[in-house]
Amino acid sequence: MAELADPSVLVDPANWTCPAPLRDQPIVVMGHGGGGTLSAELVEQVFTPAYGNATLAALGDSAVLDLGGARLAFSTDSYVVRPLFFPGGSLGDLAVNGTVNDLAMSGARPAHLSAAFVLEEGVEVAVVERIARALGQAAEAAGVTVVTGDTKVVEAGHGDGVYVTTAGIGLVPDGVDIRPQRARPGDAVIVSGPIGLHGVAIMSVREGLDFGVEVASDTAPLADLVAAVLAATADVHVLRDPTRGGLAASLNEIARASGTGVRLRERDVPVPEAVANACGFLGLDPLYVANEGRLVAFVPRPAADEVLAAMRAHPRGAGAVIVGECVAEHPGMVVVSTGLGGTRVVDMPLGEQLPRIC
Amino acid sequence: MAELADPSVLVDPANWTCPAPLRDQPIVVMGHGGGGTLSAELVEQVFTPAYGNATLAALGDSAVLDLGGARLAFSTDSYVVRPLFFPGGSLGDLAVNGTVNDLAMSGARPAHLSAAFVLEEGVEVAVVERIARALGQAAEAAGVTVVTGDTKVVEAGHGDGVYVTTAGIGLVPDGVDIRPQRARPGDAVIVSGPIGLHGVAIMSVREGLDFGVEVASDTAPLADLVAAVLAATADVHVLRDPTRGGLAASLNEIARASGTGVRLRERDVPVPEAVANACGFLGLDPLYVANEGRLVAFVPRPAADEVLAAMRAHPRGAGAVIVGECVAEHPGMVVVSTGLGGTRVVDMPLGEQLPRIC
Questions:
Q1: CB contact B267 to A (< 8 Å)
Q2: What is the distance, to the nearest Å, from the Cα of residue A129 to the centroid of all Cα atoms in its chain?
Q3: Which residues form the PurM-like N-terminal domain (chains A, B) (predicted)?
Q4: B65 and A147 Cβ atoms separated by less than 8 Å
Q5: ipTM given for this complex
Q6: Is the dihedral of CA B107, B111, B116, B117 positive or negative?
Q7: Is A2 near chain B, with CB under 8 Å?
Q8: Topology adopted by domain B13-20+177-345
Q9: DSSP annotation string for A318-346
């Protein structure tokens, strides 16, 4: 595991304040879709006031609802990844795994998916079929069924081949209460495996770069891994899959939602050599690179070893490690201890370093 | 109420066969999104084999599922209407009403929505905000809450301002079993009000046409109307909202799913004067023009008068009329008795007459 890219600026967390939000941005820019500060502003300033309800304001990866006596998780994502096919997966895989993982991050067992396609006039039916098959196979692998769907077509020049939006529903077991607000000082921060693979896989094909070894996306369903964790301990505070904006965005969201601080140890963050090399070459920080088959868990320190053992016994969590802890200091802020004995702030990204990663 | 456009071909149903499907269409064309034969082929030849499960194959407007002891309806639609704002509504209204109506057509009480936006780089944030507010207001009017969402951004030239995909969940009351397969000879066919308004409203603004009076879309939530019908009788066989492809597409789907025939009386189909004029001018048949706030109900003839009275007592069903009946003859086929004493086949449309109507 390589070290993270060298920090260009070392900041004392005690003297640091969050940058003011970019209010009154009049035009949508690519960064609004990046899962960082701009995305959060759009949600907080446009969508939440427009819809106005407490469930949405909770801002989890999925909503948890009581309906007809059942405790349901409900989530949606649109997938606009480019290219449609990449090492390790395709739009069809992401459209399943992204949504089932959002459900799983509330502790739910994903059950059913909807799939709505927006097709661009002129795309080959064979391409649509290939994506639909990948989606069907990914659903089977994730243990969910695609039960309803829709297709719209837009004129050539108003799409990009295929966009897919999935929504998912699942059941949250009784007693499970997993959400970003529940992070507490003393929690161990566990990452389920090496980070940065999905983002680097997309970059390598999109930019035509060769990093010596082929890097494949980590796209995978995580509900079984979550079930294994919950079988090891009922005391899981937070789960999150660090997709757009990477581990940095997920940890910042958790820190802000819970009013706690997060402290990472740089040397413990699992960055594969190929990811480190690619990031060095491209000037990126692996903490900000998207993952599609990893989760970060906050669990009380006494339960951490059991959780770690349960993860490592599962194929999707074989590389699980404790990367840091939740602290009472610098609430809402994520810092990383560097190999040099310094500390740097890991801020919320403004947008994604590479748009249309998922 | 004006008569329908004069049929150009009179066909004897006894000597008529369904056109062979257009297999091996190699490229997606606009008609694949039109809700007609091309859409059905895409579902039957591409999506259903790829996902392979019985719920999807039932091809209702929504899936009905047992989950955690609850009987859930689950549905999704993408909305790519152009323009974003039109007389009577906007993309935001359609994104709510279209999905809650799909739920309501299984007899469900819609409860919660997800809303996923695909934004085109460069669109004004104020436009997004206007659509989000319309969506929030429409949700409130429909009695549902928007509980989860997503935003993606695509480069300028790969979208059309704003696309929205909503998914919805609702509860199906015990004992309710409403689906296209349940149509039976002897059922009365009831339409809840005048047809063709949504399609003509979109056409008039898109083509810059002036039909003398402004035609406003009928976009509206229909769950309350459905509840009123179900309070009048438990014996409702089929409900359908005739959106893309109009009444013609919905009736053809019902006839095929149930293996029955449908016979309409042209003079009883409620076509507003302005719709008839616009259709005459544009060479369209009102039976094929989209609606967004109407439903068609199949109920046993003995219950029809009660259902009609219940509909007429509700603002959304004030113009309800019986337009025909379900018959044992010409199974899978819809025919209309013309004012001249003749009969013509109302075939499934190939695609929508005007793309991106919803």
A1: no
A2: 27
A3: 61-172
A4: yes
A5: 0.93
A6: positive
A7: no
A8: Phosphoribosyl-aminoimidazole Synthetase; Chain A, domain 2 (3.90.650)
A9: TT-EEEEEEESSSTT-EEEE-TTS-EEE-
pLDDT tens sequence across A289-348: 999 999 999 999 999 999 999 999 999 999 999 999 999 999 999 999 997 889 999 999
Q: What is the second-level CATH architecture of the domain A65-171?
A: 2-Layer Sandwich (3.30)
- Measured over the CA atoms of residue B136, residue B139, residue B144 and residue B146, the dihedral's sign is negative
Half-sphere exposure of A205 (CA within 13 A, CB side): 20
Structure tokens at B39: 């859409």
Measured between beta carbons, which residues in chain A are less than 8 angstroms from residue B123?
27-28
Asked if the Cβ–Cβ distance from B46 to A132 is below 8 Å, we say yes
Closest CB to A160 among B27, B154, B171: B154
Residue holding tokens 């581990």? A247
Residue A289 contacts by C-beta under 8 Å, 6 or more apart in sequence?
A195, A196, A198, A199, A200, A246, A275, A279, A353
Domain residue ranges of chain A, discontinuous segments joined by +? 13-20+179-345, 65-171
**C-alpha A69, offset from chain centre:** 30
Q: Min CA distance, A158 vs chain B (Å)?
A: 4
Q: Is A167 on the interface with B (CB under 8 A)?
A: yes
Contact residues, chain B, for A160 at CB < 8 Å: 154, 158
Q: CA of A292, closest CA in chain B: separation in Å? A: 16
* Contact across the interface for A76 and B25, Cβ inside 8 Å: no
For the stretch A290-306, pLDDT in tens is: 999 999 999 999 999 99
Q: Tell me the C-alpha distance between A230 and A307, whole Å.
A: 8
Contacts with B, A 123-162, CB within 8 Å: 123-126, 128-129, 132-133, 135-136, 139, 145-155, 157-160
**Alpha-carbon gap: B79 to the closest alpha carbon of chain A (Å):** 8
Protein fold of A13-20+179-345: Phosphoribosyl-aminoimidazole Synthetase; Chain A, domain 2 (3.90.650)
